[in-house]
Amino acid sequence: MKDNKIALFLSSLAFFITTSLQAQDCKSLFLLTPGAEVELSRFDGNLVPKGGKMINKVLSSEDAAGEQVTKVVSTNYTEAGEANSTTNLIYICDGKNLRVFTENEPVLEKLQNELTEIVEKKNGKSFAFASVISPIEYPLEIKEGMELKGHEVTSLMSFKVTQKELRMVGLPKRHHNYNTTGRYESTTETTNYIQVLVDREIANATVIGVRNIKVGSKEQVTVPAGTWECYKITKELYSRVAGKKEYGELIKSINLTASAPSQLVTEWYAPGLGIIKTEIKTRKPP
Questions:
Q1: Do residues 14 and 36 lie in contact, with contact meaning Cβ atoms separated by under 8 Å?
Q2: Domains assigned to the chain
Q3: How far apart are CA 251 and CA 253, in angstroms?
């Protein structure tokens, strides 16, 4: 078995943390501070810069219905320094847990409009699309021995749905709705929509997820931005494509054998700051 390893370091901070970090205090968290900026640089297994970098910048942070709702834009850069993708994130802190959602409504709306236009123009086959994304969740007070909640993305796109089938299953669904109270609506409707498409054998569903997230002991970790006492967290990334026969069991349980080589991830989490270092190993057959 071979291991391919990628390291991801917190390489710079926009400013220093001057507040006293206390458990269950959302406003003291660095990543929820307006104007905060974090740069993550990628390295290969030999610590040679490879794959460019990612910069996360906090756009706003405000109280909403008793929760701290923070909007962050994450921009990925190539090794040449060119921005090639942008993701909008929503951090929601309730004093006990910090949840991270993707919030790309403009992108989803554009995609849905494009698909709708194609549906209206074509008389034959067309598209169906749906996606459900569960949040990444971290408790504010992490302890050694804890097992954290897993998360996953379930998506589906079909290029063979007919007009008759499309009338039965409807138009593409958005994967979530975000409202002013800082809460996400249930994704049950979209999950059911995916189930219908799979049951009718119009398309297969793809699931990418994270499981077995375990908190280990504390270690002192040094990166270009400084040195921190961090919890060592391990987890497993997996993926699977499911058709009609497999989908029912797939959606019920996260304890599945991956259909692709799983990736073993180690993260070093600094309380009050976040993840400052990540290593990813992909096991390949000999």
A1: yes
A2: 2-284 (2.40.360.20)
A3: 6
The tokens of 136 are what?
Answer: 């990444």
pTM of the full structure: 0.69
Token pair in block for residue 119: 């549906």
119 membership: H or E segment, kind and range:
helix 105-121
Which structure tokens are listed for 74? 């994450």
158-202 pLDDT, tens digit per residue, is 656 665 665 565 555 444 444 333 344 445 666 776 777 777 777
Q: What's the pLDDT tens digit per position in 25-49?
A: 787 777 788 888 888 888 877 777 7
Cα(50)–Cα(6) distance, rounded to whole angstroms? 9
User: Which pLDDT belongs to residue 278?
Assistant: 87
- Name which of 83, 124, 133, 82 is nearest 104 in CA terms: 133
Counting Cα atoms < 13 Å in the Cβ hemisphere of 169 gives: 29
